[in-house]
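Lab intake sheet, docking and co-folding queue.

SAMPLE TYPE: protein with bound small molecule
LIGAND NAME: pyridoxal-5'-phosphate
LIGAND FORMAT: SMILES
REQUESTED OUTPUT: full 3D complex as structure tokens
PRIORITY: normal
SUBMITTED BY: R.K., bench team

The fields below were copied directly from the construct record.
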Amino acid sequence: MKVPLLDLKLQYQSIKNEVEPAMLKVAQSQMLILGEEVDKLEKTIASYCKTDYAIACSSGTDALLMALMAIDIKPGDEVIIPTYSFFATAGVVARLGAIPVLIDSEPVTMNIDVSQIREKINFKTKAIIPVHLYGQCAEMDEILKISNEFNIPVIEDCAQAIGAQYKDGKFAGSLGLIGCFSFYPTKNLGAFGEGGIITTNNKELAEKLKQMRNHGMNPKYYHKFIGGNFRLDALQAAVLNVKFPHLENWHQRRRENANLYTKLFIEAGLSESKGKMIFDNKNKVLIPEAVYENSGCKNYHIYNQYIIRVQQRDKLREFLGKNEIGTEIYYPVPFHGQECFAYLNNNEKDFPVANELSETSIALPIFPELTKEQIQFVIEKIKEFLV
Ligand SMILES: *Cc1c(COP(=O)(O)O)cnc(C)c1O
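RESULT FIELD (auto-filled):
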């Protein structure tokens, strides 16, 4: 049985009849950049995330870059980020000449360890970027407390977390000053190419960001500040507008898949429950926990990825590959180990959790169209490997 990590063609088949006419309409209109479809998308996403404004842009990376530019991050400023995330989180900071100040991960959620943020704050600290990794919100209560105490803005990296909710059902992207989302095809809401969006409740920032995505221009050919070409194509917005009404259903399917994995791992006796770090038992897997949900709070993990941890990760991956089961490693090298960040002179001993995650985590197929049989097959094969 083939189990790909992700099969976008299945999703395409299910929306083909809606999405093809929408794309054709844009083609026939020849209104190709920004415009009505983009306006509609912005209204939809602002209302979904419960923010006053949403500004569509060219990618999740550009959303983060624009957010940092909008709050005037300058060379030498320090920005606090987790060391374990997709590269863009760190890349945008360094591209502005600012210094990524790296923090280790918390072992259960795999998000930034908030207990280590305070000690890294000084007069140069100009922003904190928590990442809602894999679709589960970072520990925002503590992050917002620190933000208020030191008056440091929070920019949420929501690239993997559109529709994720934190305690009491607050939406990712509505908690900090600015939320940054990606419509990369592998995200829960994916375009047919690149795209992103920024959410905020701050009117002044919303206006600045709108101007920024068009070279800081206003009025035409007059520039008060330097922006860039961060515009979104109408074609992408049209696709996203067709896909959006399906999003909640897709989230639901991912959550059902996650619950089934979890149930089957436990039933098969493979799960090392509540283990925080990797454990002595090399025949077990550590399954992901939707922590706040388990503690009874209203919370919503959207499972952009279902990540398990195992000691013999690379061997397991090879074995699953031989059995036509697709997996991926998010991420094999934390920022402190990246060659391009050697100049930051971080000591890898300061990041024991992220190091372990990078050596033991593996993503299993979780996409909405996955069947029960496929999930059972994945569990069967993992059991065969471990036991
Ligand atoms: C995907 C992703 C980004 C970047 O989004 P793009 O649209 O690919 O530029 C940023 N941060 C995280 C955590 C991501 O997963």
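REVIEWER NOTE: The mean pLDDT is 95.
SIGN-OFF: pending second check by T.M.
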